Amino acid sequence: MPYTAPFAEQRFVLDVIADLPGLAALPQYANATPDMVDAILSESAKLASNVFAPLNPIGDKTHAKLANRVVTLPPGFADAYRLYIEGGWAGLGVAESHGGQGLPFAVAVAVQEQLTSANMAFALCMMLSQGAIEALAVHASPDLQDRYLAKLVSGEWTGTMNLTEPGAGSDVGALKTRAEPAPDGSYRIKGTKIYITWGEHDAAENIVHLVLARLPDAPPGIKGISLFICPKFRPDGSRNDLVCTGLEHKLGIHASPTCTMSFGDNDNCTGYLVGAEGAGMRAMFTMMNNARVQVGLQGVAIAEAATQHAVHFARQRVQSAKFGAGRDPVRIIDHADVRRTLMTCRALTEATRALVYLNASAVDRSHAGDVAGTGLADFLTPISKAWATDTGVEVASLALQVFGGMGYVEETGAAQFLRDARIAPIYEGTNGIQALDLVGRKLGLDGGAHWQELFAQIRDTIGDLTAHADLKTIAPWLDDALAATQAATIWMTGANNPDDIAAGATPFLRMMGLTLGGWLLAKQALTAAAYLASGNGDPAFLTAKITTARFYAEQILPQVAALSGPVTRGAALLYAIPEADLAA
Amino acid sequence: MPYTAPFAEQRFVLDVIADLPGLAALPQYANATPDMVDAILSESAKLASNVFAPLNPIGDKTHAKLANRVVTLPPGFADAYRLYIEGGWAGLGVAESHGGQGLPFAVAVAVQEQLTSANMAFALCMMLSQGAIEALAVHASPDLQDRYLAKLVSGEWTGTMNLTEPGAGSDVGALKTRAEPAPDGSYRIKGTKIYITWGEHDAAENIVHLVLARLPDAPPGIKGISLFICPKFRPDGSRNDLVCTGLEHKLGIHASPTCTMSFGDNDNCTGYLVGAEGAGMRAMFTMMNNARVQVGLQGVAIAEAATQHAVHFARQRVQSAKFGAGRDPVRIIDHADVRRTLMTCRALTEATRALVYLNASAVDRSHAGDVAGTGLADFLTPISKAWATDTGVEVASLALQVFGGMGYVEETGAAQFLRDARIAPIYEGTNGIQALDLVGRKLGLDGGAHWQELFAQIRDTIGDLTAHADLKTIAPWLDDALAATQAATIWMTGANNPDDIAAGATPFLRMMGLTLGGWLLAKQALTAAAYLASGNGDPAFLTAKITTARFYAEQILPQVAALSGPVTRGAALLYAIPEADLAA
């Protein structure tokens, strides 16, 4: 299926929500001039549409394959990866001091969105490498940076994240992989890791595995975990003692090799300590926070691609007369029920995109030393990750439905979007974990400053809407959503029983996501109205922005209040049925 | 994954919601004594658990395969089908006058639920045959019945439904297959049909295709359609001129051969007219209404199986300490967030089951000549079909999430449930078509008598709840849901613009489903409380029934009011963005 980058939309959200002009005014993002960002997004759009998208169905059908411990990618992927390196895309968001182009993360995210819409399984490789770069840039010694960072930034090497073990999934602290100090200052790593995305493949010269392991005398739990680099090939060119022993057969992202990795089968896996002993989780969180925003982005990207695909189909497929309107068959886009589906897809896509871009922008402000930016980024991350990925699945399923029977057969590609999207609520911390992170850590961050600040900004937006002749009808919907979300937040921050808090976490995160999404669309509508009034920009695009914000307010925001009860009912009823009686 | 039939639950819903005692009091269902129904459901549970369930993952991996125009089922399926015939299951719900066992459809539905939970792709074969039996029993001449019905009722032959063509999906009236009268009184059929479920296979001696086609002089549209039997083998044993030319590669139900059927490639496909010329759609609707209830049932069945599977996993998997409770890892069923997910799955499964069983019971009353039963069955059918199938997908996805990463790899089977479930909102009329049927035809049926009667019954239940010391907390939730649904119904019946009605149809159907589900659970809670008070039945089961009703009321019913706005906003905004601007 062809993919067209939503260039105007991306630029608008970068400007209005991610405050790209504000970022570009900071010394470290001075490269992010409007012309430069335009040029970048136009070029990456070509890579996405012309190179990544055509490989998407091929990867889905062919899968990455393992034979004799070698992983072979589907045909065309290795060549496409070379084009990615040659374009310099791997270093886009990396500081110039590390050999990158020094552009904001928000811009890198816009590029990554395009690549992910076009081919999520492939773009995962790039995502993992970006996380590895981030972790090494922050935590590795200059010596390790010299040896590993440059090749990751050029894209010649790729990076991975090795956390999960069979008995340690959500509970990372339970991991058992061991690291023994060796006389030369390196370590010998031994253990098995599972679900390692792009853990082995044939498109890059070397793979830099970031591996969490325990020293012999390490304390139990998270504090005993250290981070190591285990390169596929050691600096002297010799093959390290690590191997892919299996690939998962998955629901989707078939082109992405999900590896079982065995380290040190011959007691000769060389690892290099990153940061201090016992500081592994801190380093891994650097990588993981970046990755969580990018997984949220996957939800946006699949929603965008699936929506495009469904709109394209609905404009061509002729079937049945309109409801109550004679016998002449029309294209299905003319049916009100299909139109509702497509508008829902569109509104949810734009709302989640705005949230993820705002989150990325906060990461940029954080990197520039803005403490409030750090707090905001931390606060938003679980919401971006969980709400955008749940929404990505929802939109992919709605889009599939537009195709009718043709959505269920694999030829159209609608089913692939749903299958690919379904991993995102699971990995990088399940959405349940994100919800607990939100209520357990993020709500109380800096004394609640971040949700208070966000709510104040939403109130400002409601004020602006109310004062606006054309947009005031949006205000009451957003006001109701804010009132319910605020009441739920106050309940959450006042609750004492951990079970009650945990019981409400998932619907609470959903309230937050839905409300923030509605706010960010309303903000865009206000800007669009101002641009229209001043004759600035494409009227069709700006008018559509306003319509989408209104649709979301009327049709989607009412869900927020319906979640108040579920958030605040407590846990008692959840445990009332003995577990043995929960199912036949 | 093992499957255990929810015997106590099924019996309870049959008694309390489907009014099995009332049905058994009717002469034609006199066989449905409690002992008989117990014996049947125990036996079918064994068939489901021991024969159908073990084949489910095999069918998913192996697929039905086409080679040289012969379809081969996955290993074990043909043998299992023989056991199904030998058990006499095919004739369970067929009148004794046609050689069946004369049991109510509601009982046949309970059996079919078990088989579908165990193996949806396989149970589809039985479902299609039951529809064919129904159509022939009502519309075929005694002569055709003599030749075709007995072997379908015994299960030796299977039946299919041939509506869809490449240009005629939801719009059945657009079909082009032709039927030419032949001198011997039969017809020559010519045309191509697609998406023909179980259109060709090797488990039965013969296949009875029910084919919609047009006579040469037929008027355009639905009125020109006639129904024909095209047997795979003619009465003289010769092979008819019809052939499977292709199988679809689908997201799920891989063991179910979805065929492209070509009739009359050599101008020699014999067809026999069923009913009058031009009366094909009436006959097909007989079959389709039965099938729509049974597709709704597929949603229930997958929800049940997926929930069992997730509960089983959650009771075993140890991961992480409880939120806010130290460091000792617990089984994930002890985490409040997982427990919420499982309770949601359970509540939705029970609510949809009650609705579908009520619908089946109304079909039985209709068959017994009860006009109000006919109207109720017609009214409920689109709600059962659409709401239960949407819910089946939702529950399968929630259940998958409980498995974390293990849900995304195919080995566990969690992903298969989601893939299989996803067809049900599409076939037998997409859920969008069901919503238009509800607002366009069913709301006005008999002057609105059926929704008025249902609302009156819900009000009675609210009264009973309010008067009940232990259950009165459920009443306000149900009252709010009823008030919103009633207001939306009145809006719908008063709206004049077809676009506005169509625009609200899908959320309106959802309101109806959610409210009816909550009502039926509340009714069961009232009965459970009465049984508990009188020491009648298993206290654990009855107490769990009450808990589930309460959970649904508190956690799920609030969604109803949130749909009021979406139902009544009208269509204007849906068409505000020019279609060319709907997606990039």
Automatic annotation (TrEMBL), chains A, B:
Ranges where the Acyl-CoA dehydrogenase/oxidase N-terminal domain occurs: 80-156
Cofactor needs: FAD
Acyl-CoA dehydrogenase/oxidase C-terminal domain residues: 278-438
Ranges of residues in domain Acyl-CoA oxidase/dehydrogenase middle: 161-264
Gene Ontology MF: a single term: oxidoreductase activity, acting on the CH-CH group of donors
InterPro entries for this protein: Acyl-CoA_dh-like_C_dom, Acyl-CoA_Oxase/DH_mid-dom, Acyl-CoA_Oxase/DH_mid-dom_sf, AcylCo_DH-like_C, AcylCo_DH/oxidase_C, AcylCoA_DH/ox_N, AcylCoA_DH/ox_N_sf, AcylCoA_DH/oxidase_NM_dom_sf
Alphabetical keyword list: FAD, Flavoprotein, Oxidoreductase
Domain Acetyl-CoA dehydrogenase-like C-terminal residues, every copy: 454-577
Family listed: Belongs to the acyl-CoA dehydrogenase family.
Protein name as annotated: Acyl-CoA dehydrogenase
Name of the gene: mmgC
